[in-house]
Structures are given as structure tokens and as C-alpha cells.
Please model this.
Amino acid sequence: MRFFTPIYLLGLLLIPILGFFFWWAIARRKKLLARFGEIPLIMKVSQGISFRRLGSKAVLVLIAVVFLALASARPQLGTHREMVKRQGLDIIIGVDVSASMASLDVQPGPISRLEKAKQQVRSIIDPQWLKGDRVGIMAFAGVAFVQCPLTLDYAAARMFLDAVDFDLIPVPGTNLTDAINKSIEAYNREEKKHKILILLTDGENHEDDVLDAARKAREEGIKIYAIGIGNPAGEPIPIYNQRGEKVGFKKDDSGQVVISRLDEKTLTQIAMITGGKYYRASPSDLELTKIYDNISSLEKKELEGRLVLRYDDRYQWPLAVALVFIIWEGVLPERLRFKRRGDNSR
Model:
């Protein structure tokens, strides 16, 4: 015997409280009657009053409360094996860790583009969001690297996310083409659906064949959802020393400060080619809800099936007993019924 929700057993603590209340109520009723004379005399004059019946009804209520508490705690006795099938999608999340993601143009804050991206990934890697989907994490800059392969272990995926930073990939630049190609390799190539790629980037691609990579992804059954992080008007890229102090801004070979701009046009084209959508990151993260609404309607595949041990609920037994006592208390009258002398009516 075990209880699935044992906290409801605390309801048994109501028994002494209710018991005291019923005792007090009956005693108060006796005290009020005593104002009119001696209790035994009043009992003879007012035939039908039965404090014993009142006590019996109180006991029935207390017994019903005991069994209701037991039923609420869901007693379980016995087990059986059940096949559980899990369905979901394969979702890879690509995070841009290039130098331009250090730009501080994300509100509220301001915070860096990379920090905003990681905040959104943390929101995605949640059982309430994924609901059985496999998730993987990919970091990309000048090249792409699958940081966490597709997994159902969301806690492990979050640990890999914590390690995502600017120094993770030493090759500079932003190579969206390699990011898409690496995601293709991370999926099961034999399947041509159930695949989602979410890219969090400012879209500053330094390669020319990114649209060809998107078409290849479409042929592999991958839908790409892009989240643009940054400001289309542009923002300088800060440079930090080893102590994390900002020492200036990145400059080009001619000494001009480099301005990093959100490239929404490229990200929109990539998403449209694959049947996905593009959204700009917002302070409210509303775009995550829109992406979730889109992918939740997609056909899901069976990811795994396994036998699990299930306990058999037996709450019906104490619940039935409680109902019996409740009905009993309801039909039990408070007063005794006496047949009048000389009344021969049937």
C-alpha cells in the first residue's frame, strides 16, 4: 500500500478540530435548554430531542472525513505494466556565438545579443515547452559545432547551454551556411520530416551560398525558424579585456568602428524557403509563443516506446465508504419519533 499524494493525509488533522466543534455545539445546545429548566424534565416534556442522535451524526461525519482524506491521498495497491509511447519532434537550436553577438542593443538592459539568445534557449528547453520533443544545441561562428546532440535529457541540454560563449569557437565570422549543413548531418538522414531548426542570430552571414543550404535543408524535411537578435540600424561591437572591462570597439583595417546590423532579409529568406518563419526578438519573448504554436500543430513521430510500472489506484474504496457514511448521516434524524397514544392510524 502506498499513497500517490500523501499530503492530503493532513486532512486527518481536522478530526480533533471537528470533534471539538461538534462537542462544543452539543454542549451549547444543552446549556441553552437548561435555561428553561432541568434537562431531564425538558427531555420528558419535549419528547423527540436526542443528544445521543446528535452525537451519532457527529461521529458519522467524522468517519466520513477520515475516509475522504484517505481517498484524496490516492491509495495505491498492486501494479501492472503498461507500454508508454512518446511522440515528438527533433529540434536543434543554433546559437550564434560570433563577435557581433556581443553588441549591446537588446532591451531591456541593455544586454548582449548572445545573452538574449541564451535566455530564449533556456525558455525553450523546458518540459512544458518541448513536451517530449528531442532537443539539440549547436553553436556557430566561422564554423558550426554541435554542442549537444539530440536528446530527451533536458537537464543535460541546459548544462551544455551554460558552456556556450564567445570563446567556444575560435574561428571568427558568422557562417550560417555551415550551421545549416551541420544541422542536416545531426538529424536522421533517412527521415524527411519531424525536423525543426531554430536559429538565434543577428543574421550577418559571411558566406554567399546560404540560400542553397536552405534549399538543401528543405529537401531533407527541415523547417527553419529564425529569431533575429539585434538592431537593423546597427550597433558597434564592444571589445573586453581579460577582466571583463570594455576597452573599446572593434575596428576594420582602415580604423573605422565596425557596425553590426541585424540582417532580417537573409533570415526571412532562409525561413521562407524551408516553410518556416522569421521573427524579431522582443522583450516579451512573444516570438517563442508563435513558434511554439506553429510547431505544436506539426505531425510528430514516435520517439520511443517502453514498458513502465504503473500502480493501481484504490481510492474508490475509501471514497465509497465515505459516501455511505455521508448518506447515513443525512438520513438519520436528529429527533426520536414517538407514536401518540390512542393513535391507531397506520
User: Anything to note?
Assistant: Residues 85-304 form a domain with the Rossmann fold fold (CATH 3.40.50.410). The two ends are 52 Å apart (CA to CA).
